[in-house]
Structure formats: C-alpha cells, structure tokens
C-alpha cells in the first residue's frame, strides 16, 4: 500500500468525494469532513473511490487499508519505543548529573568550610604567634641590654668602692706606721695623722658605717697630744679596728661583685638560650605561615575549580532537560498526529464498508 507510485497519489489528489451529496446523512457528512482533515484519511477515501471505480474488489481494498493502519500503528509503536528509550537515557543522565552536582556541592561546601573555619583562623593564629615571638625576642634583647648596662654600672661602682677602701686602708696603714715610730710626737706629726684621718673620712664618706669610727678618731687626735701612751695605744687600737672593718667590707664587696658577675653570666647564658629558642620558633612559625599561605592558595584554586565544574554540570543538566523537553514536545506532537491519522483511517475504513459509500461510487459512475 505504501509503495504506490507518485502518479497514483497525483491522481488521488485530483479526486475528491463530494461530502455535500444527498446520499450522505448529516452524521456521514460530519465524519467525512473530519476524515478529510487527515491526510491519510482523505488518501484512503480517494483511493477507495478510485479503486472501486476501476473495478477493484472491496475486500482487497479493506486488506490494503488494514495493512496501512497496521503500518501506522507499527510506526507509532516505534515512536513509543524510541521515546521510552530516550526517557531511560534522560533519567539515567539526570540521575548521574544530579549526583555529580550533589557531590560537587558537598566538595564546595567542605572547601569553603575548610577555608573559613580552619585556614583563616589558623593564619590569624600563626600571625599572632609570630608577633608574640618577635615581641619576646625584642624583650629578650632589651633585658640583655639593660642587664649589661646595669652590670657595667655596678662594676664601675664596685671599682670605685675598691679604690675608696684601698685609699682608706693605705691611709690607716700610714697612720699606724707613723704612730708606731713616735714616742713624743711633734706638732707636724700630729697634723699629718689628722690629715690622713681627713683623707680617710673623705674616702669613706659614702659608707655611713665607718663614719663613726672616723669621727671618734678625729676627736681623739684633736684633743690628744699623743704624749699619753695610754691614749696612743687606744688610738692605735681604734685604727686597727677600723682597718679590720675596712678589710672585711672590701672582702664582702669583692665577694658580692663575684656573685653578681656569676649571676650576670648565668643570666646572659639563659637570655641567649631563650633568644636561640625564640629564633628557632620563628623559623618554624614562618614555615607554618608559608604552608598555610600555600594551602589557602590551593583551596581558593580548588573553590574556583569546583565553582566552574558545578556551573558546567548545571549547564549540562539544563541542556539535557531542555533537550528532553523538546523531544517530549516532538514525541507528543508525533503521537497526536499518528493517532489522528490512525483514527481517521479507521473511520474511513468503517465508512467505505457502508452500503452508502458503494451507492455513492455507483452514482458517481452513472453521473460520469
């Protein structure tokens, strides 16, 4: 049936059933008008009319038309099959894309979370720790500098005290030497002793604990003429006591200085050790800061990559949905057209098997 030549179709196209003929009922006319809206329905009626006009047998016509309807239904089944296959492909593709989108969104969320809640706080914490280390180093060096300046000052004070003590001891020794050689001292000798006492007083004026000794000796030497041997012995004893006190004091400040030097040296060692530890900590912290900066850069690159991947996947999903929507529209229109043609063919087949159709064809032949 479908293999009719183009010339037959041209002939049929020139043949038209008169739907206004009095042989048709109103119902028949409505059916004919509806059939004529279908290309296949109109083709069947025209072909049936031509077939019968040329002496064809109705049963042969029915068989050919049934084959036509069968072929249309087979083609429609193929349309359904192809659309179902397309639907299966669409569903699998959508499921795949939605799963990949969900995975990318999870990766993107995790990347943002890692950036916001781990890397940035870590960066700020590392920066604060580095700043603290730098402050510790500055404080360490400042402490060392202050301790060094203080040690220098204390040592200068110590040297001055040693010099004062030595001057006083030398003056006492000179007095003792002088007093041990005189029996009846002259005025010049007495004045020399008093001069040495003034020298001792000046040397020890910063040391209050010695001032009373010096004051007593000055008073004795002023009031005594050294003629009294008992007074002379008292003066010598006083000088010896003062010398012992000065030697003890010199030994004490010397011991204090040695202890202060040892404490300073220990402090220097400790401060330098702390400084070395701080320096090593700075190196480690800078390495951590660099690693953190690299991780931040990598994470931002990953976020950009995930954003691009997500945009691509969403675009693919939208394109697939759009393509499937278009395929669905085409499928629905195709199915509607096939159903229209099949229904029209069945109506035409039902109509041409009615006696009125045969009567119509005969009337057309008589009129010819």
TrEMBL record:
Residues 1-16 form the signal peptide. Residues 58-150, 261-323 form a coiled coil. The keyword Signal applies. Keywords: Coiled coil, Signal. It comes from the Eukaryota. This is Uncharacterized protein.
